[in-house]
Specification:
This protein is of the alpha/beta class. The chain contains seven helices and 13 strands. The strands form three sheets. It has a nine-stranded mixed sheet, with helices on both faces. The radius of gyration is 23 Å and the shape is globular.
């Protein structure tokens, strides 16, 4: 029996973008047009976990779901280049409020139900833009499935899920029946790089695009539960104190004393 795996992946602003490049316009974060987005790093590790499960099972189908707007196809198609079987973009004006986790949860849960007979949903432990870590747990609740978080290893044997979870002082092993939701942490390891064959194959594949109507969602049910009141850049200031002396050795001694006074050393 084919193992049906779903991975959730989000297109985000590149976290390596310099702070000076960020702007805020009407409570929306903006970056220069030439600053390309990326697939959320933790989600790439969830994709890696899915591909490892596929390789171990010998008979699995991996679908990646992404909710958002203004997808950059050359970016969001990276999972296809990595080796997943299908990419589904959930793109509808009603889905534009991706800041509100309740909207994203409802959309993903409806899409998973539309796919049907899904055995496991894998997701990154959090997204690098808002760092809320709420959506995967909310999806598990909406589906009525068990959830294991912050996983470093995922195995499935005889329809039993076995997960090694990261703890501050080690790890623990938990088991659950399928279907289930698992969030993947960076301790899983580095995601594989797409090879040239995968990149070329991905170029020939067009993602499936679903609207609210396609997944049977009533737009009235997508009323946001959260309101973003204000968003602003933190104010920062840099103060420089020059340490001088009669010569380099004297300046060094004064610098060391100043650092001791500030309890830095």
């Amino acid at each position: 029996m084919t193992l049906k795996i779903v991975v959730t992946a989000k297109q985000v602003i590149d976290p390596e973008t310099p702070t000076s490049a960020f702007g805020i316009d009407s409570n929306i974060v903006t970056v220069p047009a030439n600053q390309a987005p990326v697939v959320n790093g933790f989600d790439e590790q969830a994709i890696e976990a899915a591909l490892r499960l596929k390789e171990a099972s010998g008979d699995a189908h991996v679908t990646v779901l992404s909710v958002g707007k203004g997808f950059a196809l050359d970016i969001i198609k990276k999972p296809l280049a990595m080796g997943v079987d299908e990419l589904v973009l959930l793109d509808d004006p009603a889905f534009s409020n991706t800041i509100d986790p309740t909207v994203t949860i409802a959309v993903l849960a409806a899409a998973i139900n539309k796919i049907g007979s899904v055995d496991i949903v894998l997701a990154g432990r959090q997204a690098s833009d808002w760092d809320n870590a709420q959506v995967p747990i909310g999806v598990a609740e909406a589906l009525g499935w068990p959830v294991a978080t912050v996983a470093k290893k995922v195995d499935i044997k005889d329809s039993i899920l076995r997960v090694e979870r990261v703890l501050p002082d080690g790890h623990e092993v938990v088991e659950a029946d399928l279907p289930a939701v698992v969030t993947i942490s960076n301790e899983l390891g580095t995601p594989r790089y797409p090879n040239m064959r995968g990149i070329m194959a991905a170029r020939r594949v067009q993602p499936v695009v679903w609207s609210a109507a396609d997944i049977g969602l009533d737009l009235a049910s997508l009323k946001p539960a959260f309101e973003l009141v204000s968003l602003s850049k933190p104010q920062s200031a840099v103060e420089t104190e020059m340490i001088t002396g009669d010569d380099d050795e004297d300046a060094g001694r004064k610098l060391a004393q100043r650092l001791r006074d500030e309890r830095i050393i």
